[in-house]
Amino acid sequence: MRKETAIHALVLAAGRSRRMGDFKPLLPLRGRTLIENSVGSALSGGAETVTVVTGCRADEVERVLARAFGERVRFVRNDAYAETDMLRSAQLGAAALPACGAFFLLPGDMPVVSPETFAKLRAAYAREPAPLVFPTLDGRRKHPPLIDAALIPAILAFDGEGGLRELWRRYEGELRTVPVDDAGVRIDVDTPRDYETCMQTCEVQGKEKKEV
To answer: Which residues make Cβ contacts (< 8 Å) with residue 150, sequence separation at least 6?
Structure first.
């Protein structure tokens, strides 16, 4: 039996947004900032708290999130964000997580993942725990995976090429997948065109909710 059964989330938001031409976390989306949408979806999906790795313009991002979510959001900084990659941010964040049974890992530029997707991953993990539980769309694995806390030491120790994707290969035979019908799992906002697609998706989702 696990000593801890809580589910938390880790959101990576340290980067400089070079391809966007503007600072992604603070772009407007659905009446909030993009990063508020990312954190909010994880909380709405059942994460007890969200640990956010900040870097570029960390003070601004942390201020916005603290005002929106209070004690449900925690922060750790990647001060070397300009010289390091996402793996380093993931390692810093994993090391700072509260005690938990598992955690979601979500890039901060994926703001429209449905809370239902998080909930489906949690339910699948509760039925049959696995080192990794990925959502799939059209048969392809997407973010956010739900990661068993037992993998944290392996994440912290990994220093190979290919980042976490390469680490996940070691668990290929043990991971589980959960099919979802959620366009949000394939939308990451890297470029102005991505941002436009994201806005259009939000409009469609809003219309669908009104119709229901």
So the answer is: 131
Q: What is the pTM of this model?
A: 0.94
| Whether the Cβ atoms of residue 126 and residue 34 lie closer than 8 Å to each other | no
Supply the Cα-derived Rg of the chain in whole angstroms. 16
Alpha-carbon span 106 to 108, nearest angstrom:
6
Report CA-CA distances (Å) from 209 to 13, 181, 184, 200.
29, 15, 15, 14
Closest by CA to 114, choosing from 29, 50, 37, is: 37
The burial of 115, by beta-carbon neighbours within 10 Å (0-12 exposed, 13-18 middle, 19 or more buried), is given as: middle
Q: Cβ distance 92 to 76 under 8 Å? A: yes
* Strands in 86-131 per DSSP E: 102-107
CA atoms within 13 A on the CB side of 110: 25
End-to-end CA distance of the chain: 41
Q: What is the pLDDT of residues 149-161, one digit of tens each?
A: 999 999 999 998 8
Task: Output the pLDDT for position 1.
Answer: 33
Residues 90-109: tens digit of each pLDDT: 999 999 999 999 999 999 99
pLDDT at 4: 66
- Contact between residue 109 and residue 190 where contact means Cβ atoms under 8 Å apart: yes
| Low-confidence residues in the chain, pLDDT < 50 | 1-3, 212
Q: In sequence order, what are the residues at sequence separation of 6 or more whose Cβ sits closer than 8 angstroms to the Cβ of residue 12?
A: 52, 53, 86, 89, 90, 93, 105, 106, 107, 108
CB atoms within 10 A of CB 57: 17
